[in-house]
């Protein structure tokens, strides 16, 4: 549209010049001729200037300093990418705007709002499509190969030796013994253990009374109440508990784990059996069935409302926690800002590179057309203004010449 007006302006100037020539005997003809001629000169000059920016006027490539933008394309692209990277989107500018953001408050406001049903449906569909896209058999094969490879590199016997050595040297073996002893004491104090101990003591005594005389004496002692299996089991239990609390028990425990460490370290056959058991355990994992179960459960959870309700409650709880403890909100905000700034410093050069690569990937015709589309329309008004201003200047000069 602007180019049409510019051409119309030139046409009007030409028509006025022809009218002036046709009526050259009239007193006003010289003024009209001077104004039209100056307008034509200004309009044609500006047409040449505007056209020379984008292409060769009239296709004459031998004219100097024409198709300026095309000839200086690389320099212009470099200037634009540098301008965007160092001025318009400089690191300091982006970092300053990041610091102004109230990220913590925005996160709390976002978590407080219930998930939009449309967004929830879109997320559900997206997750379902992603789950359907995953090839279960290939995933199971990958997990099997990965675990087998890592298991082959993992020397379990070596880690057992290191673990026991660390327990002894750091004196954490005492804490381990205390933990185990406490649970053993709980078992000893249970009613089930006491009843089982009574039964076993009775069976043991009856087993070792082989002769008739021994059986008679045992029965007599039981009838007289001399042999009380409950008291006997309580006595055994008390002795075991007292022994577990003694330093002697810990010394025996420590000696036992040290012997285990030495045996595992020096017995190559035992080490081989341990590694073989590890490999058998890894190979026995039903990866296909496990992956199928996980994927089925995932699809069920995504399709149902329980997952989304749980996520909604979790989001509300997180928002309430951040609101209750402002220091946590500030800590989260600082962490996000620090991470964002770190990523900015690391990847900021990509901004200029993306602009540069995108511009360089355009062919010359597309490059010229886009620039002409964005700025050429305003440049066409220069042609209009050139013709009008030139015409006015021509008219003024004609009047001055006549007066002088």
Key descriptive features of the protein:
single chain, 404 residues, rod-shaped, mainly alpha
Mean pLDDT: 79
Number of strands: 0
- What's the helix-strand series? HHHHHHHHHHHHHHHHHHHH
- Tell me the overall shape: rod-shaped
Radius of gyration: 47 Å
Compute the number of helices.
Answer: 20
Count of separate structural domains = 3
Contiguous uncertain segments of 5+ residues: none
What proportion of the residues form beta strands (DSSP E)?
Answer: under 5%
The percent of residues in helical segments reads: over 70%
- Largest sheet: number of strands, sense, barrel closure: none
Q: How far is it from the N-terminal to the C-terminal residue, by CA?
A: 42 Å
Label the structural class. mainly alpha
Please give a structural write-up:
The chain is mainly α and 404 residues long. It folds into 3 domains: 2-71 and 364-403, no CATH class; 72-101 and 325-361; 151-285, no CATH class. It is built from 20 helices and no strands. It has helices at 2-22, 29-54, 68-71, 73-88, 91-100, 103-112, 117-133, 136-153, 156-169, 172-188, 191-208, 212-224, 229-244, 247-266, 268-283, 287-303, 306-324, 326-347, 349-360, 364-403. Helix 8 (136-153) runs antiparallel to helix 15 (268-283), helix 11 packs across helix 13 (229-244) and helix 17 (306-324) crosses helix 18. The longest helix has 40 residues, at 364-403. It is rod-shaped and about 155 Å long. 9% of the residues are buried. The mean pLDDT is 79.
């Amino acid at each position: 549209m602007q180019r049409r007006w510019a051409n119309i302006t030139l046409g009007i100037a030409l028509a006025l010049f022809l009218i002036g020539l046709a009526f050259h005997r009239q007193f006003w003809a010289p003024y009209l001729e001077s104004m039209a001629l100056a307008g034509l000169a200004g309009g044609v000059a500006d047409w040449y200037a505007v056209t020379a920016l984008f292409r060769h006027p009239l296709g004459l490539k031998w004219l100097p300093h024409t198709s300026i933008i095309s000839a200086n394309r690389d320099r212009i692209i470099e200037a634009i990418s540098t301008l965007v990277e160092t001025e318009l989107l400089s690191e300091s500018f982006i970092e300053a705007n990041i610091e102004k953001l109230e990220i913590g408050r925005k996160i709390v406001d976002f978590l407080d709002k219930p998930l939009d049903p449309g967004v929830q449906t879109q997320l559900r569909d997206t997750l379902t499509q992603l789950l359907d896209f995953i090839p279960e058999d290939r995933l199971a094969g990958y997990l099997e190969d990965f675990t087998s490879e890592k298991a082959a590199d993992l020397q379990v016997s070596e880690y057992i030796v290191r673990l026991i050595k660390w327990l002894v040297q750091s004196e954490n073996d005492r804490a381990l013994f205390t933990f185990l002893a406490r649970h053993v004491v709980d078992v000893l104090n249970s009613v089930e253990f006491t009843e089982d101990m009574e039964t076993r003591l009775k069976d043991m005594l009856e087993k070792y009374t082989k002769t008739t005389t021994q059986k008679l004496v045992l029965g007599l002692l039981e009838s007289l109440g001399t042999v009380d299996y409950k008291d006997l089991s309580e006595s055994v239990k008390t002795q075991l508990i007292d022994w577990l609390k003694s330093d002697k028990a810990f010394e025996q425990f420590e000696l036992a784990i040290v012997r285990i460490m030495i045996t595992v370290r020096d017995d190559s056959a035992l080490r081989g059996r341990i590694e073989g058991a590890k490999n058998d355990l890894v190979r026995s994992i039903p990866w296909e069935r496990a992956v199928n179960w996980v994927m089925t459960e995932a699809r069920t959870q995504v399709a149902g409302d329980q997952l989304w309700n749980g996520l909604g409650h979790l989001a509300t709880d997180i928002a309430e926690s951040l609101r209750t403890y402002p220091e946590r909100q500030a800590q989260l905000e600082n962490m996000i800002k620090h991470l964002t700034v770190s990523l900015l410093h690391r990847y900021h050069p990509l901004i200029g590179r993306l602009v540069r690569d995108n511009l360089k990937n355009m062919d010359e015709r597309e490059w010229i057309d886009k620039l002409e589309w964005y700025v050429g329309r305003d440049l066409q008004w220069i042609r209009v203004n050139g013709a009008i201003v030139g015409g006015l200047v021509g008219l003024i000069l004609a009047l001055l010449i006549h007066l002088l």
